[in-house]
Write a structure and sequence with these properties.
By secondary structure, this protein is of the alpha/beta class. It contains 8 helices and 15 strands.
Length: about 230
Amino acid sequence: MQMRCIAIDDEPLSLALIQQYISKFPALRLVQTFDDAISAAEFLRTNAVDLVFADINMPDINGIDLVRSLVEKPVVIFITAHRKFAVEGFELQALDYLLKPVDFNRFSRAVQRALEYLRYRRHDAQTQEESIFVRAEYKLIKIPLTDILYIEGLQDYIKIHLTQGRPVMTLMTLKSMQEKLPATRFRRIHRSYIVPVGRITAIVNRKVHIGAGPELPIGDSYAGFIEEWTRQ
């Protein structure tokens, strides 16, 4: 399965380099290149693509404004000579950003991440069943479902506690996370907690025991889960 992509950069040498890099990936099909954002925006309004490589610092319209103007947003990898643009790119949910001059190995890692995410977004059954993707630390992180110990809601953020390593913090509501997870394997037990059902070892005094991990309370609105669990 090939992914349709375009490249936008007002610097001819940089655009040629990105084009050369793209040609090394059979899974990518470069359908068009542009040396200005206005022409690229017009193309994107009438042509669907999966992935966009976009320079940020361009005349007339920069890469960030271009992506912000799109109604249907493809996956975006920004290319920039300035680290300061990383925060704006993250806010636009760009998958990655590459610093000029772009190193091929770094480019390759970004492409592999993009391909994996695009397959996930296209509802590849195996990938969707076994992992989720979240944005944290200015990048897209893949988390295997089997690594999740429990998920904690903290106002506008959630903290994903893992069986190994430090927790992953991401800007997302607990409700949005619940919609990402398979309902048969993960259940919400409290306004602040989602747990993997398979990791529950006991429920005592309306508290869920997660193996040797923490005891998590069951909220009043989720008390029916106790009966469901005992019937399993």
